[in-house]
Amino acid sequence: MTTETPPRTTPNVRLPMLGVLFGLLLAMLDNFIVGTALPSVLNELGGAPVLSWVVTAYTLTAAATTPIWGKLGDLYGRKRMILTAVGLFVVGSVLAAIAPTMGMLIGARVVQGIGAGGLAVSAFAVIGDLVPPRERGKYQGMVAIVVAAGTIGGPLLGGFLTDALSWRWAFLINLPLGILTLVWVALSLHVKHERRRARIDWIGAMLLVVSLSAVVLISTWAGSAFPWFSPQAIALVVVAVVSLAAFVWQERRAPEPLLPLRIFATRNFTMAAVLALVSGVILFACVLYLPLFQQNVQGVSASVSGLLLLPMMIPVVIASQVAGRIMSVTGRYKILPIIGTASAVLGSVLLATMTTTTPVALTACFMVLMGIASGLTQQMTTTIAQNSVEHRDIGAASGAVTMVRTAGGSIAVAIFGSIYAAHTSGLATGALEPGIAASVSQIFVIVAVVAALGLAAALTLRETPLRGTR
User: pLDDT tens across 154-171, in order?
Assistant: First the structure.
């Protein structure tokens, strides 16, 4: 007699999971590996006014295409989408490595970003296909290790390759890992899928891309390229609002909507989306601005800037492992994001108190709290979201929370960049340290408010028992 509960941790799950995690590592590494290569890119290709788009083009297209990949996976199969996404990512990496101009480099980053959107959502959706919700906690630690490796290893690897070889090797390094991922997934991943006859909601996809692009452009340009209440900013706001309203209308009438609105009818899914937004803001604020503060204010060497994140990343891995074990044994999870978001509120408030005299060791202690917060919320959001929807919507649900997390991080980076520029522009070198300290303090005040919103969302979660079957 058969049982509904699948084998717990078997090679049949571990082997394909490893290939999927290779793909996720590709996307995570490229999120952070390029930052250390940007000065060399600028020296060779020029284009200072558009240099930030080497990063923004990647994060924007990754966020905008994530739900599209999720829905395509629901319709045509996860394996096909992973292979396609890896292929696009590798092609984009080659184009970036050989780009002779800044414009072509940005275009190559768009191709990479499209592939990265598929890699991220497919990884979480495959976990949903292979592992029942109650067992998914065990794999949070694996995902957390990949996140930590990409976050810390990206800047270190990018700096080493740029110094030893050329900035172009920051992109060429993706080729061996990409080829390994293609072969591994092709041979090991076997997920049963019944193809559904349906048309892709391309109108909805276009409207979503336009809306997200307008929001990111507002966050990036308003206050720097033009004033907040200028005609350009108002026009972008109008485009964002109108396209979002049109997207909702389209999803209500489409036979096979890109983001089925029924998934938002569940309170837990909506709260998981809020937690995803919070986790994206926390991650990007810490990864980008804490090393900046430690290098320029506390005088730590830039060559080991990636290692400065260890006090945060080690707790991420440990907290994810503990959370996964608790979920697997008890089937309960509500207390975990509550503790995580409360830790984020406390850690952000403490980080906001930093001044030019704050020692490195004290900053590291504050970062431990942010690591615990990230470990208890970041991967938890996908599990809660997937447990809140029917299996046919797992790809769409995974895509939605991943999109919110990425878009939230991208928007936060743009806003935080404006705050940083406002505090430091026009200052002499000697006066720069107080300006940086003031900007980082203000940034983490905002993070604390966002984390408090996440705590409110966590408190309103309804603890629906985690399913023990796929």
Answer: 777 776 777 778 888 888
